Automatic annotation (TrEMBL):
The species this protein was found in: Oleiagrimonas citrea
Note on cofactor: Binds 2 manganese ions per subunit.
Gene: rocF
GO annotation, biological process: arginine metabolic process; urea cycle
Record's keyword terms, sorted: Arginine metabolism, Hydrolase, Manganese, Metal-binding
Recorded family membership: Belongs to the arginase family.
One MF term in the entry's GO annotations: arginase activity
Lineage: superkingdom: Bacteria
Protein name, UniProt field: Arginase
Length: 306
């Protein structure tokens, strides 16, 4: 018998916050890789809610430090509403992006749900990047490099106040894993905010096991664990299908250990899978790896473990 609630797949097909086109095809690439069938084979109840519909990507240059701000706000509003609706029905939403700007909407919804339920929130941010840029710090204006900052209250009102007048989360709720690319101005801001970061230097020195043990410390029965999985977390040798590859990421076994240790907690209540870009992929190989890792988040392991 599985210990997970019914799952809802929510496709959010947009690359409006990214610097490369193509992530809008991510949800359907995950479907081609049989994400629904794989999860059902684990005995899980899965409903595919289809794809949300929002503004097209106009592919314009940044204005006042932000590219496509109005469109990004609208897509995040739609994402927030869809994720919150599933949580309210006692379901586990998997937001299939789309680029990582969409985590602003999904995590705003999760944070609201946790406040209403009186639950603590822990966010695992699996990514090559800290995504803690602002309009003043960003070299590109691409909002997929800003969602953690926006969630913590640093950014345009349309995103920082998506779920109300206060920041959706506090930096103390976030654990970032796999980081290996941080813009110059962003480094100081990450340090000042006190974000807990397990970068690849840390993982190289102490191992994925210790990084995950520390990132998961303090979880209890009243903690909702949200996993925001940017596929560029993975080393590009196993996951080439992203627009922002950074060499030196977790290998396949390190990634599997990460996911298995998350599954062992039994606390995951929501998930983002983002930045999968089939335009850069090889025969959907990255989508297949992503689905394999998602299966591990839901308890796949080599042997039965106590």
């Amino acid at each position: 018998m599985n210990r997970f609630p019914p799952i809802s797949l929510i496709g959010v097909p947009t690359d409006i916050g990214a610097g490369h086109r193509g992530a809008l095809m991510g949800p359907d690439a995950l479907r081609v890789a049989d994400i629904d069938k794989v999860l059902r084979a684990r005995g899980l109840e899965v409903a595919d809610r289809g794809n949300l519909s929002g503004p097209v990507n106009p592919w314009l240059p940044p204005e006042d430090g932000y590219r496509h701000l109005d469109g990004v706000i609208e897509w995040n509003r739609l994402t927030m509403e869809a994720v919150y609706a599933e949580l309210s029905e006692g379901r586990l939403p998997i937001m299939m992006g789309g680029d990582h700007c969409l985590a602003t909407g999904s995590i705003t919804a999760v944070a609201r749900y946790c406040r209403e339920q009186g639950r603590k929130l822990r966010i695992l941010w699996l990514d090559a990047h800290t995504d803690f840029n602002t309009s003043e710090l960003t070299p590109s204006g691409n909002i997929h490099g800003m969602p953690v900052a926006c969630l913590c209250g640093h950014g345009p009102k349309g995103l920082t106040e998506l779920g109300g007048s206060k920041p959706a989360i506090d930096p103390s709720m976030v654990r970032q894993i796999g980081i290996r690319s941080v813009d110059e101005g962003e480094k100081k801001f990450v340090h000042e905010a006190g974000l807990e970061v397990y970068d690849m230097r840390y993982i190289d020195e102490f191992g994925m096991k210790r990084a995950m043990e520390e990132a998961l410390t303090g979880l209890d029965k009243n903690t909702h664990l949200h996993v925001s999985f940017d596929v560029d977390f993975l080393d590009p040798s196993i996951a080439p299908g992203v627009g922002t590859t950074v060499q030196g990421g977790p290998n396949y076994r390190e990634a599997q250990l990460c996911m298995e240790m998350i599954a062992d907690t039994g606390r995951m209540g929501s998930l983002d899978v983002v930045e999968l870009n089939p335009a850069y992929d090889d025969h959907n190989r990255t989508a297949e790896v992503a689905v394999d890792l998602v299966e591990s988040l839901f308890g796949k392991s080599t042997l039965i473990r106590g």
